[in-house]
Design goal:
- The complex is a heterodimer.
- Chain A starts with a strand and ends in a 6-residue tail after the last strand.
- The radius of gyration of chain A is 18 Å and the shape is globular.
- Chain A is about 20% helix and about 35% strand.
- Chain A has a seven-stranded antiparallel β-sheet. Chain A has a seven-stranded mixed β-sheet with strand order 11-10-9-8-12-13-16, with helices on both faces. Chain A has a two-stranded antiparallel ribbon with strand order 14-15.
- Chain A is an alpha/beta fold.
- Chain B is an alpha/beta fold.
- Chain B is about 30% helix and about 20% strand.
- Chain B has helices spanning about 80-95, 110-120, 150-160, 175-185, 225-235, 250-260, 270-275, 280-290, and strands at about 10, 15, 20-25, 45-50, 65, 70-75, 100-105, 125-130, 165-170, 190-195, 200, 205, 210, 215-220, 245, 265-270.
- In chain B, strands 3-4-7-8-9-10-15-16 form an eight-stranded parallel β-barrel, surrounded by seven helices.
- The longest helix of chain B has 15 residues, at about 80-95.
- Chain B is globular and about 55 Å long.
- The two termini of chain B are about 25 Å apart.
- The chains are: A alpha/beta, B alpha/beta.
- The interface of A and B includes residues 50, 92, 234, 235 and 246 of A.
Amino acid sequence: MKQIDAEILEIEPAAKNIFRLTLKAPGIAEAAAPGQFVMIRPVSALDPLLPRPFSLHDWSGSQGTIIILFRVVGKSTRILAKSRHGQKLQVVGPLGKGFDITSAENVCLVGGGIGIAPLLGLAKQLLKTDTKREISVLLGGSSGAELAPLAEYFDIPGLAVVLATDDGTLGHHGVITDLMANHLARSSDWLVLACGPMPMLKAVSYLCRKNGWPCQVALETAMACGMGVCMGCAVKSAADSGNKGYLHVCKDGPVFWESDVAW
Amino acid sequence: MVRDKPDLQVKIRELVLKNPVLTASGTFGYGRELASLVDPVRLGAVIVKGISLQSRAGNPPPRIVETPCGMLNAIGLENIGVEKFINEKLPFLRESGACVIVNILGDSVEEYGQLAEILDNVPGIHAVEVNISCPNVKQGGVAFGIDPEAARRVTAEVRKKCRLPVIIKLSPNVTDITSIARAAEDGGADAVSLINTIQGMAIDIQTRRPRLANVIGGLSGPAIKPVAVRMVWQTTNAVSIPVMGIGGITTPGDALEFLIAGASAVQIGTGNFINPKATIHVLEGIEKYLLEHEMNSIHELIGSLND
């Protein structure tokens, strides 16, 4: 874990209300793993006060750069979207426990909305590992206008990308779990790795449980510290997981086995 | 003559703190979490996350919400319990050589006493800080910290059960904090620290629900600093034991305000979340200020408020 003042190399709109931020982050980029996150403070002023957590979308250890994909949802992200090339931002990371991709199953990545962000770095890491496994990427969004530009990042040989939109303007007309049921039925040995809004993750988790597919989910909560000291990012743990009470998204996660989380 | 390095040492009874910059309980974990960013040995002391006799699961989420220049929290005193703390968390800090102050909390006077007794015999602990903002379960749930007599009794009990320096952490949610501070002094406290968080509340106007599951939370951060400075100033004028200032410190200037008001030391809390290296930034800034103002010792600054 490092704390640096990272220079903005590039900030560009990626889709409606979604921006792609490239930062010079030596020391952080080299240590990054899929599913981990960074805490970014958009201003040095006191309002907004706290840094915000962002998943790592992509990174290059050799170039010492990290890329964040974020949606504008409030004051901090509005400020971040208006930041400019050359400006410096306080960045702490890499933080948290990422995806466990040590097993050799076929892998299905499931992303919804801005939850698609961490799946790119994950997909690239999976492609680097020397196995013959199949990598499916199921991406969902509200509309084609939102989803198409994000899906383009996954236009990489070796990835089988399938899309779904709520309004039917791109890919399957419906939710991502419809696709999972059809797509994964062909084989039984899938590892599902998902990130997206809580209702989507809940549905994915339910489907995986029903079909016996092991599943990891990347969760998002409000955080103050990002490093396991404030205890603010608690989520209820599953009663039978052996962990009593609460899990902490920043330190125990953000990636959890779905069976550890109380849905 | 001004020396190269001003003397930053402050004393709490016989305990010498190498400098007046400490971490506030619950904002620096058990020292290890931030150790790659801040060497705990550089700090006056590390005050660890509040510990109770038994582990506590804490409150349901959402537990935190940001407010203008501040944050509300209702963590619910989640902690691993004193036994696990001693066995699993303390060894790292002990071996690091850091000055360790253990924050304790309980539901009854007896529980505070038991905790003090347990910690008294553990190597590597230099003082205890007593969180008296907790409800007194046996006495109708009124917080110890808002009743002078309850505050005095808790202090006396902890004092009786341990030889370590005892710091009483005061709640600001009272009409007159000096009456509680005097009660702590009467009970045998070696120092008081203030302020704990100020009770607050935030509402989501779309859902018309409270933003915290616990409805009410504790406000911290720069928003509360003027209140804290005022209470520290009042308290230093009311007691003769050292006072530690806490509340919204993020910069050296913030810390200097507390010291000038009369605080012998400061604790940095929410500031650690904003900038994990805030303690070091503040420490270096205090040193620079003393040099610039040709002061040999921090004691020339403490309580130096002009009319």
